Amino acid sequence: MASKKFFLDGFTLSLISTVVLASFLPVQGKFVAPFSFITNIAVGLLFFLHGAKLSREAIVAGATHWRLHLTVLLCTFVLFPLLGVLLKPILSPLVTAQLYAGVLFLCTLPSTVQSSIAFTSIARGNVPAAVCSASASSLLGIFITPALVGLLLTNHSGGDVSPWHTVSNIVMQLLLPFIAGQLLRPVVGGWVDRNRSMLKFVDQGSILLVVYGAFSEALMEGLWHQIPLSALFGLFVVCAAILSISLLATVLASRRLGFNREDQITIIFCGSKKSLAAGIPMANVIFSASSIGAIVLPLMLFHQIQLMVCSALAQRWATRRTPPKQRTARKAA
Q1: Per-residue pLDDT tens for 190-206?
Q2: Which of 16, 89, 202, 235 is in the most buried spot, having the most CB atoms within 10 Å?
């Protein structure tokens, strides 16, 4: 029953509401600069808290399962970019050039943390390994994602990437706050661990700020006039295709490599998902304000599709692994 919240949760509704608000009441004029400053502060705070939440003990404890972690990282940072590039001749005609740039950006992102662990837990996979893999993916993504973006989107019509500017922004807005959070974990770590539910507000609030600012700028540039309805439908097909292939690839790879059932579940959920929480702040740092709206739109759609599909898979696998007597008792309850 816990998985039902992933089908259309409050945060998804908040994202939709934020886009609608930006469509009718965009931030503009003299409010743009202070709003941008507040957004940058929120993004820095987000990565500071990510650093403070990441337990070094969990990393050390899970690091010995290197084959699993390596498989997840290869799926996240090698398989996905290859899919984006190799499928481009087939899928790019379904969308605009800007939207496919967003698809390529999506393919460079790290895995999710919270939902990957949640789905692994529901499906009765290797939760400690999921914690380690997802955390490692999120940390390495700070370095790998900008490098992949520079490789895949240089001179692309949808990407406006300046390597030196990107490195500077990544270091100042993402890396330094993250390192500060790690260094101060002995001081603030206990408070952060006790207030994870409250700190969720910072995670989601910073994303909503970036989305509101991004779509305000994009809509002022005529985003919806540049994206026909057919391209939005095509984007759904593109995201569904990439997710389907990645799920199939992680299933086959984990079986082929001889992992047990629990590890297979972990690889599937950690290796086939992309992080909205990391992706939108990164887009805010890497891309120009005028292009962010179209860049993050594929990620927002992919995020919802992956939650719905993975929620159904996790629930199905949990039911399969539940002994018949327990299954009957659950139905009776």
Answers
A1: 888 788 776 777 777 87
A2: 235
